[in-house]
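So, is this right?
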Amino acid sequence: MIVIAVIALPALLWCLFRLILPRGPFEMDHGQVMGSFSILMPYWTRLFFYIATVSLICAIIARGWDLNVPALCLLLAFVNALLFNGFLTLNYENYLATRYPRDGSQGVSSYTINKYALVLALGVSAVLLLLAGLGLAAWSMQ
């Protein structure tokens, strides 16, 4: 049962965020200043690369100690952290291309509620799965 819940966590969070968040489109840049999110983006990507690295190392250690469920949680945290970084970068590049077109015309935001909920769900599930995996590993070693 735990395995199914762990695998379905990003989808469940996406549905929850999809229902809770207001309708889009959302702005990624603050105050209509082109590229202002690019100041924050390295911090987010670096944080989730750290989460991915810690998750992968801990998953390898947990699997070596024959702790299968914590290893699965940690491995999925690794995958979700990498997907978070990938989709955040992809969505921001798409946002910049549609919001600030090269021809000088007025662009529109392409960052919809579905994209925002996906990135948010992947990030939250990566953190939750890392904490759950570490907690289950500690609990199993008692």
